[in-house]
């Protein structure tokens, strides 16, 4: 049976414990031992991917194309987090997710929130095109990959 594809309201929640490898120090985005903003974004992306993964065909994947993130509160090493993403907008193969990060202790405190945009595409075609475009790139040129 073929997957029906992503649907509005698809959601997933992931949990993570902040480790030294997740800190601003490790990420190079600061000099304090708290969850790095780039790491929070990576966790939000992972939740968005998990939200639609069961609905994609085996030949499909999704890639990130845009993000907006507010990192509101610090999370120290050892903190357990819950990050939830929900598919809130669809326009063809373009998907927009809302995400929110909270402490896993059940409090209503918002650690971070924002939106993630991803595009669903054919995995093999995308990888081939990225490798071909990248191989032809020299100097200061930037490879352009068709996400459509």
Commentary on this structure:
This protein has 3 helices and 5 strands; from the N terminus they run βααββββα. Strands 1-3-4-5-2 form a 5-stranded antiparallel beta sheet. Helices cover 23% and strands 35% of the residues. Strand 4 and strand 5 form a beta hairpin. It has helices spanning 24-27, 37-52, 123-136, and strands spanning 11-17, 60-71, 80-91, 94-103, 112-122. The protein has 148 residues and is of the alpha+beta class.
**What structural class do helix, strand and pairing data support?**
alpha+beta
Number of strands: 5
Estimate the mean pLDDT confidence: 91
Main-sheet strand order equals: 1-3-4-5-2
Shape descriptor reads globular
Please tell me how large the radius of gyration is: 17 Å
Features:
alpha+beta, five-stranded antiparallel sheet
Outline of the structure:
The chain has 148 residues and is an alpha+beta fold.
Secondary structure blueprint with pairings:
Blueprint: E1 11-17, H1 24-27, H2 37-52, E2 60-71, E3 80-91, E4 94-103, E5 112-122, H3 123-136
Antiparallel strand pairs: 1-3, 2-5, 3-4, 4-5
């Amino acid at each position: 049976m073929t997957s029906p594809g992503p649907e509005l309201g698809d959601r997933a929640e992931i949990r993570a414990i902040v480790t030294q490898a997740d800190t601003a120090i490790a990420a190079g985005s600061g000099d304090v031992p708290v969850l790095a903003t780039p790491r929070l974004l990576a966790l939000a992306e992972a939740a968005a991917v998990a939200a639609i993964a069961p609905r994609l065909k085996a030949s499909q994947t999704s890639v990130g194309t845009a993000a907006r993130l507010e990192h509101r509160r610090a999370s120290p090493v050892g903190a357990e987090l819950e990050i939830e993403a929900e598919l809130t907008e669809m326009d063809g193969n373009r998907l927009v997710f809302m995400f929110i990060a909270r402490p896993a202790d059940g409090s209503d405190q918002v650690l971070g929130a924002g939106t993630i945009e991803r595009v669903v595409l054919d995995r093999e075609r995308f990888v081939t095109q990225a490798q071909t475009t990248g191989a032809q790139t020299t100097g200061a040129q930037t490879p352009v990959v068709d996400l459509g």
